[in-house]
Amino acid sequence: MTAGERRADVLRAAVAEFAKTGYQGTSTEDVARVAGISQPYLFKMWPTKKALFISLVEHGFERVRQAFVEATGEATGDEALDRMGEAYGELLRDRDELLLQMQSYAACDDPEIGAVTRREFGRLWRQVARLSGLDDERLQQFFAMGMLMNVVASMDATNHPSQWVKACVPPAWLAPPTWDG
Amino acid sequence: MTAGERRADVLRAAVAEFAKTGYQGTSTEDVARVAGISQPYLFKMWPTKKALFISLVEHGFERVRQAFVEATGEATGDEALDRMGEAYGELLRDRDELLLQMQSYAACDDPEIGAVTRREFGRLWRQVARLSGLDDERLQQFFAMGMLMNVVASMDATNHPSQWVKACVPPAWLAPPTWDG
DNA sequence: CAAGGTAGTGAGTCATCACTCACCATGTGC
DNA sequence: GCACATGGTGAGTGATGACTCACTACCTTG
Q1: What is the Cα gyration radius of chain A?
Q2: A133 near B CB under 8 A
Q3: Model confidence over A66-108: pLDDT tens digits?
Q4: What does the domain layout of chain B look like in residue ranges?
């Protein structure tokens, strides 16, 4: 297998592990085992655990930006924002991406991780601003709802239903287009 | 010093440490050193590191609920929600409380921590519902804004100003009543 | 002052973890 | 058929971390 393919495999495995247990709580041995390679080889691909984590964070934000571009299409304004919101809801189905985002916020005390996370968040903000053309107040509401979705995903609320979950989580988050529920 | 006083001291020290580096990233030695006690004594007060973390989480959510009751006073409806939002903004000044909340969301993969976090989040939701008497949609917007504030606090955005921070963070978050700026 | 409870610690133990070193196997160009 | 890059690992190492054990100093009560 080529190094490029391996790298992609490892990234997929790593995002799942780091999403669950966070930067500090995930061991490089775990990642290597799930990826099906030896742990020393992990360190041939990334010089440190932190470098691996950071490339996951960058990759994750990049995917969100890309999903927003694709979802928006030719739309602008509130229409564009609605479509991006829907696209974000679909990312919820693959919880790992959003969980990893939460883990990167939680790890911001580390200066390098903090710097990358702020930079990526800023890029996402500017892109949504550019795509929608809306004012700061609307953007703020949009991002606020996104952060609530992240938290709900972190708590795995939809798999632990209770009274408040029904109130907090609108059906739209639970029923992306492909469902029939 | 009595055990009760020590316990309060240790909780204060522990919240600062866990807020920074999270459940997995914080060592009991760190907590003990900052609290000014030996590490074995920590284990006489709480049986495990997890038990300490969980009591911090419960304590933190409790404080938010209490702050909301006090802030609301006799108000109801949107007026009540406004006052609670203002109270939450004041909690931002002591970042540690909000960061610890983020750390508890991030640690939800652990079944016990997850259960406690969901329970506390639910209690908070119900309390805001009761105090304000508003419908789910308004509550959702309120909590969404709160989660955005948590994330902004995690990224320490106000101490790393850049273009998007000015747009994302309304002056009200930065200028609680006691400021003069 | 004896007896016992309360507050507190020094010095471990055993597991885990990030990271390294020396090494092997399989092509591929010459 | 050999030099050499590419892809890959077994077996460490030194540090750290959660948790324990055996112990002391001090206070209170009779």
Answers
A1: 17
A2: no
A3: 999 999 999 999 999 999 999 999 998 889 999 999 999 999 9
A4: 3-174
